[in-house]
Amino acid sequence: MNRRLAIGITTVALAMASTACGGGGSSTAAGGATSSGVKLPDLHGQHLQVAAVWTGPEQQNFLKVIQQFDKLTGAQTSFVPTGDDVSTFLGTKIQGGAAPDVAFLPQPGVLAQFAKAGWLKPVNSAVDKELSSNYSSGWKNLGASGGKQYGVYFKAANKSTVWYNTSAFQTAGIAQPPTTWAEFLKDAQTISDSGTTPVSVGGADGWTLTDWFENIYLSQAGPDLYDKLTKHQNKWTDPSVAKALTTLGQLFGKSSLIAGGNRGALQTEFPTSVDQTFANPPKAAMVYEGDFVATNIASDTKAKLGTDAKFFPFPAVDGGKAPLVSGGDVAVALKDNAGAQALLQYLASPDAARIAVQQGGFISPDKALDLSVYPNATQRALAQSVIQAGDTFRFDMSDQAPAAFGGTKGQGEWKDLQDFLANPSDVAGAQGKLEADAAKAYGNAG
Q: Which CATH number covers residue 248?
């Protein structure tokens, strides 16, 4: 999944303003040192360009980070919005000789493709030092390809969170959130019996369905099979996939448990799936998606985080461990210059993370960052779950796949799981479609 659709579309005026933004402040030093002691070079006279998918609040959040970088170094950094199709946007820029200095990639699969094409510049020793000091090996390794370190994971996502309307749970008499899939289904039925539809599904955005599958599969099948399926070393016709789809079908196959039924879910975009859960009165009691749901709740509803809206970890399935599926955005250098490396070095430091975190709606995988800087208990709990997971988490499977399979609207896994939501009894048919599309995208049919 990518939560790039979650925050909404910024206006043209905002995009133009943000592009022009960046180097307005004067430098505090000719090459500054951050509060944590990171020494940055003097970049006066250098103009840098950073490209990312972020819009709205996410974009404004990041602009504050690069403004501080500019003050420390004297650089002038502008932000370029990529639109949803990051790989196509950047590929066109690179091939046209107009690559930005640094870009954020939302998918490890794209990082691997860009590295193979020779489009990325390895990090220097200063960046690598920050990564080794501040990141677990799991996060560092996600930014590497072919034995070389290319990326800095600046932003992380906990994609194993279920958000619930506390009043709907109280009305149904549910005192504690479920911890297992069996309890989840039982509570869903109890909520339904109380008069509220239990689950909101944003099925119009196919990436949400990949996230449902991945959490069930990681918990039920375990990390080893998860890794093999991610790399297409196991086929989607494997019995473990059939078992996970059958389990997901226990929810998707009972339309009374889904807001609007299956047809309605397929017409519901992700932001709406959140809105209807925290409407008054609620149209659903729960919505599954990542920590970024908190941003939607805060900006689009009247519900108060931690009071009206809370979350619980995605439930464990069939005796497996509760899953922790992560997502994130990795910064990479597309040009070989001192400014690009300096920006990566800064982004790998707790100083940059602190600015982003304090504004809310942001989780950093930087373990050197003091959790007390998060603005509220909900954000601290979300961040703590990511940091405490160490190297046991697994990155979003679809984001590691070739974009043609795991990251393109209307095709591949997104479309195949939408078809499954429409007809959840056809497990074998869904497996066949998934395997055919995966084999084509990975190029390893047979």
A: 3.40.190.10
First CA to last CA distance, the chain: 27
Half-sphere exposure of 408 (CA within 13 A, CB side): 14
Tally of domains in the chain: 2
Q: Judge if 18 and 96 occupy the same domain.
A: yes
pTM of the model: 0.83
> Residues 4, 57: contact at Cβ < 8 Å?
no
Write out pLDDT tens, residues 73-127: 999 999 999 987 898 999 999 999 999 999 999 888 889 989 999 999 999 999 9
Q: DSSP labels for 336-384?
A: -SHHHHHHHHHHTSHHHHHHHHHTSS-B---TTS-GGGSSSHHHHHHHH
The pairing of strands 76-81 and 47-52 is parallel
Rounded to a whole number of angstroms, the CA Rg of the chain reads 22
Q: Which of 388, 418, 435 lies at the terminal end of a domain, its last residue?
A: 388
Q: Does residue 422 lie within any of the structural domains?
A: no
- Report the alpha-carbon distance of residue 431 to residue 132 in Å, rounded: 40
**327: which residues sit within 8 A by CB, 6+ positions away?**
1, 2, 3, 106, 156, 157, 159, 290, 395, 396, 399
Q: Is 406 within a domain?
A: no
Look at residues 343, 359, 388 and tell me which one is the last residue of a structural domain. Answer: 388
89 domain residue, yes or no: yes
CB atoms within 10 A of CB 189: 15
Are the C-beta atoms of residues 382 and 158 closer than 8 Å to each other? yes
Determine, yes or no, domain membership for 396.
Answer: no
CA angle 308–314–318, rounded 5-degree value? 140
User: What are 294's two structure tokens?
Assistant: 């908190």
